[in-house]
Write a structure and sequence with these properties.
Order of helices and strands: EHHHHHHEHHEHHEHEH
CATH class of the largest domain: Alpha Beta
Number of strands: 5
Strand content: 5-15%
Shape: elongated
CATH superfamily of the largest domain: HAD superfamily/HAD-like
Number of helices: 12
CATH topology of the largest domain: Rossmann fold
Structural class: alpha/beta
Distance between the termini: 8 Å
Largest sheet: 5 strands, parallel
Strand order of the largest sheet: 3-2-1-4-5
């Protein structure tokens, strides 16, 4: 079947870098370890953050209070780490090539407020992708409400799910997308396999 639209996940697909690490390490290893153990290992908290029920300022105030690092210093290092995150060049090139041949391309990501505030403009994602959907802006994660974020993205693209492909590093998300009638590819730094799949769908 000819694909009309391709949706990309961001974290783990278009980008594999992590918040905080680039600017906290190596000088603040203990704080980086605390963040990993108490923020990112707390699924309830990170899901609230990605649903827009809390924000980066509140998270950084919590880290500051618990670790003793100054809030302004931490927040500055945090935002600098966001700006330093690099995109996966092969995936960006693939997205450009798909757009060049008339495919509709979008991003659907479980992400935080800072993605919309910094990452999208920093990498000019709205210039490359026809639509960018961030969970924090909609109060929903990708698998909430039977994948309603996908419906929102496809609605903006004017595309049916049966003519679309979702590229995500989470197999459960891909299974949901397939159950909704779309095609899916579980991505784990396997760009050649993905490229071959897309070639076969032309």
């Amino acid at each position: 079947m000819d694909l009309q639209s391709i949706l990309f996940d961001f974290d783990g697909v278009l980008c594999r870098d992590r918040f905080y690490r680039a600017t906290l390490l190596p000088d603040h290893q203990d704080i980086c370890d605390w963040i990993q153990a108490n923020i990112f290992s707390d699924k309830e908290l990170t899901h609230k953050w990605m649903r827009g029920q809390t924000d980066s300022a509140a998270i950084n105030r919590l880290i500051s209070e618990k670790t003793g690092i100054g809030y302004e210093l931490l927040n500055g290092l945090y935002e600098e780490s966001i700006r330093s995150m690099k995109l996966e060049a092969e995936l960006v090139d693939l997205a450009r090539s798909l757009k060049a041949v008339g495919k509709k391309i979008g991003i659907v990501t479980d992400n935080m407020d800072v993605f919309t505030r910094i990452t999208i403009p920093n990498h000019r994602l709205s210039e490359l992708f026809h639509v960018v959907i961030n969970s924090a802006d909609h109060g929903l994660l990708k698998r909430d409400e039977n994948g309603r974020l996908f419906d929102i993205a496809l609605g903006k693209l004017g595309s049916g799910i049966e003519d679309s492909l979702m590229i995500d590093d989470n197999a459960t998300t891909i299974e949901l997308y397939k159950q909704k009638g779309g095609q899916g590819f579980v991505y784990h730094a396997n760009t050649p396999e993905l490229t071959a799949l897309l070639q076969s769908k032309k």
